[in-house]
Specification:
single chain, 174 residues, Four Helix Bundle (Hemerythrin (Met), subunit A)
C-alpha cells in the first residue's frame, strides 16, 4: 500500500466498520419506517448508498466518470436496484470491501488521475480536491449514517423506548 494512502484507507475501513455495526440489527419494520410520509426511510438511504458505492468503485477501479446527468439508460440501471434492505446491505458490504481493497493497491498519482476522471473539471468554480475519490465514499457513508442513527433514535422514541444512540447524553435536554 502507498504510505500516503494509509490514512485514507484507515478512514474508509473505520467508517465502514461503524456503519456496518450501526445497521446490523435494523428490523424490517424499522428499515421501512418514516417519521413523515415524504421522508426517507433507512431502506431508501441504504439503497441510495448501494447505488453510489457501485459508482465509486467503478471510478476507482476503471476510471469511470461519476454520473452527472441521468440518462434513460442510467435511470434503468438505478431502477433495477430493488428496495430490498437485506440484499442491498450485502451488496453494499461487498462493494465497500472491494473499494477498500482497490484503494489499498492504488498509488497517490493513480488516485489523483482517477479522481480527475471521476469528477472531471469543476463546473461551479468550486475546487475538487485532487484525491477526493479516496475519501468521498467515507464522508458519504458518514453523512448518511448520521441520518440513519437519527431515524433509529426517533423510531424508538416514538414507541416510548430509549434512544439507541446516546440515550442519556447530558448535552441533549430531556
Amino acid at each position: 500500500m502507498d504510505d500516503g494512502l494509509a490514512f485514507v484507507v484507515e478512514m474508509n475501513e473505520t467508517m465502514w466498520a461503524r456503519f456496518a455495526a450501526d445497521v446490523s440489527d435494523v428490523t424490517p419494520e424499522e428499515a421501512d419506517w418514516r417519521p413523515l410520509p415524504q421522508a426517507n426511510s433507512i431502506n431508501v438511504i441504504l439503497r441510495h448508498l448501494r447505488i453510489e458505492a457501485e459508482w465509486h468503485l467503478a471510478s476507482l477501479e476503471l476510471g469511470a466518470a461519476m454520473p452527472a446527468d441521468v440518462s434513460p439508460e442510467l435511470q434503468r440501471q438505478i431502477d433495477s436496484v430493488p428496495m430490498d434492505f437485506v440484499r442491498n446491505s450485502k451488496d453494499l458490504a461487498s462493494l465497500v470491501t472491494r473499494f477498500v481493497a482497490v484503494l489499498r493497491q492504488t498509488t497517490l498519482p493513480r488516485l489523483q488521475a482517477q479522481t480527475a476522471s471521476a469528477y472531471g473539471a469543476p463546473t461551479t468554480g468550486a475546487l475538487i480536491p485532487p484525491h477526493l475519490l479516496g475519501f468521498h465514499q467515507a464522508t458519504h457513508l458518514a453523512s448518511h449514517l448520521g441520518q440513519i442513527r437519527m431515524l433509529r433514535n426517533l423510531y424508538r422514541k416514538t414507541r416510548g423506548e430509549l434512544a439507541r444512540f446516546h440515550p442519556s447524553n447530558p448535552t441533549y435536554p430531556g
